[in-house]
Specification:
The protein is α/β, with parallel strands linked by helices. Helices cover 56% and strands 12% of the residues. The protein is globular, with a radius of gyration of 18 Å.
């Protein structure tokens, strides 16, 4: 049995999930960032890098030899079948890295909260392996505005990217905890602290049953 509580943190694109994960880290949680693991998995020299280039061509490689993530993203967001092929390459490599990190935490007997920060927690079927699931939500208009400002993209493209994921409202219905990031930073921090207290209570209860 795990010595720590594993909480999946997810949300929609541009809902502020990374901001929330940083707040959990500040409270002492171990955060495993799926996006960071994905960047490591597709670095030059990695098997996933070669598989992506074979699938999508050299045009997705920048002059510095790394993947052009924006170009690749524009390709797969416009074609669900190609997105599935990309996910079939990247997700197994990310899962392998995640499992190694979790094994290391078990070996060191970490006894706190581990946050698995992953955009597609439900879409890839990973929610079932979590002790708890946290979903970050924002109002749809705010999500669209933040995405356009972040990526300098058109409204049509931003809406298409949002639609490519499971609706945030559906994710929220499946969550143990929901954090609304539509308001001020102080309001979000207060919600994070509240959820963190609940996770620590769950961890204590889990240990008592062990």
């Amino acid at each position: 049995m795990r010595t720590f509580l594993l909480a999946g943190l997810t949300g929609g694109i541009a809902t502020g999930k990374s901001t929330v994960s940083a707040m959990f880290a500040h409270l002492g949680c171990k955060v495993i960032d799926a996006d960071l693991l994905a960047r490591e998995a597709v670095a030059p020299g990695q098997p996933a890098f070669a598989a992506i280039v074979a699938e999508f061509g050299r045009e997705v490689v920048q002059d510095d030899g790394y993947l052009d993530r924006k170009r690749l993203g524009s390709i797969v967001f416009a074609d669900p079948e190609r997105r599935k092929r990309l996910e079939a390459i990247v997700h197994p490599a990310v899962r392998a890295r995640q499992e190694r990190l979790l094994r290391a935490l078990e070996e060191e007997q970490f006894q706190g909260v581990v946050i698995w920060d992953v955009p597609l927690l439900f879409e890839v079927g990973a929610a079932a392996g979590m002790d708890r699931v946290i979903v970050v939500v924002v109002d749809e208009a705010i999500q669209l505005e933040r995405l356009r400002a972040r990526d300098w993209t058109s409204e049509a493209d931003a809406r298409a990217r949002i639609r490519s994921q499971m609706p945030v409202a559906e994710k929220a219905r499946r969550a143990h905890h929901v954090i609304d990031n539509s308001g001020s930073r102080a309001d979000t921090e207060a919600q994070v602290r509240q959820v963190h207290r609940a996770l620590l209570n769950d961890l204590r209860a889990m240990r008592a049953r062990a």
